Amino acid sequence: MSLTNSILCLFEITDPNLIVTGISKERCSTNQRIHVVHATLSYQLLKCPHCGHKSLIKNGTHMSHLRLGTLSGGRYEMHLKRQRYQCKDCSKTCGAKTKLVNRNETFTHNIKHQVIVLARDMLTSKEIAKLCGISPSSVQRILNANIHLAYRVKHLPENLCFDEFRSCNHWMSFNCCDAVSHRRIVTLKDRLSKDIIDYFEARFSVQERAQVQSVTIDMNAEYGSFIHRLFPNAATIIDRFHIIQLAGRALDNERTQTIRTIQDKHSRLYHILKSQWRLFHLDEIKVNDSKAVYLRGINEYMTQQNAIDLALDAFPKFRSVYQTYQGILSAIHQKDANAFQSLLTNYQPTSNQMDITINTFIKNGSALLNSCRYPFSNGPIEGLNRKIKALKRNCFGFRNIDNFFIRISLIHE
């Protein structure tokens, strides 16, 4: 393989009319070292592109400074001499063209591809610019010119997930994905109900929206108010994690209030409730009742079940909340909708923190029970939101929400 072909292969240049004449190193105005590839572009042009006559003559060359993709983190340029032609019939001129770069541009397709690949790795614009030897503003211009947000997905999936995330300037933005394939469906700039309704009604027909079978949400009441309007045949599912989380908060609130009633801050009961709070969130099946272990905070050897029983026997009100929490935990883990329904129906208020939680569950009765009847959860969309948060953290935040959404579309491809 010749030296010319080797250089062209390194930069993935396949234009047969381009010939490399040399390589040199120069310095730009900012004293940065530049690797320069000198080349010429010439071929036989038969007809004038303006008048169509076959009366073309060569008319000198034109020097173009093209930016190539980086090989070792430095700045690479191509000084390309393009052949110029003049028509003797219409006196107009034209030049040799190449697929290496678009017309009236200096960035080659190779460097644009490198910018997009690095942007998918959640790098900042400054880091991408440093690696490619261009400016941060050029990085953003390349992304804006080559990445276009889709108007809508081709097919609306049968199972959806709704959630929100914090985007720019403390705004909360809406996110939607497919519950099965985890593919992102849409990301909206805000989570207002009217904007979500307008998006789906404007882009999807009634027949398409009627094919949606389920929508998984968190405990946000706004989503539940318009889901049936958008998707008339869809079942609303409340995410199981948020159900357990809400019940766990009620348990912690009651535990905190119980701690405040203990006068002796050095007692065994105080340390059990204060330091061993994780034991009360464990499923009863996972609690160790046979092997004594050293419990820090209590500074004693005892079984986990013994520590739990000491606290429950001393505080009957806390025992009631704990038993209700365990019933919810068991019904969710076993996906037993009948047991969950029975727990809500037979619950007796005892003026504790769990009363508010149970009333919230009863208010969202059917959607709550659907969490036990359907296998879907908000796990896929929480994973997408986790990538978005990682992107924000890596890039130190975004001020322009349009640029932010372009980067989101890249990491979700």
From TrEMBL:
Residues 98-144 form the Transposase IS204/IS1001/IS1096/IS1165 helix-turn-helix domain. Residues 47-90 form the Transposase IS204/IS1001/IS1096/IS1165 zinc-finger domain. This is Mobile element protein. It holds the Pfam family HTH_Tnp_ISL3. Residues 160-408 form the Transposase IS204/IS1001/IS1096/IS1165 DDE domain. It comes from the Bacteria. InterPro entries: Transpos_ISL3, Transposase_DDE, Transposase_HTH, Transposase_Znf.
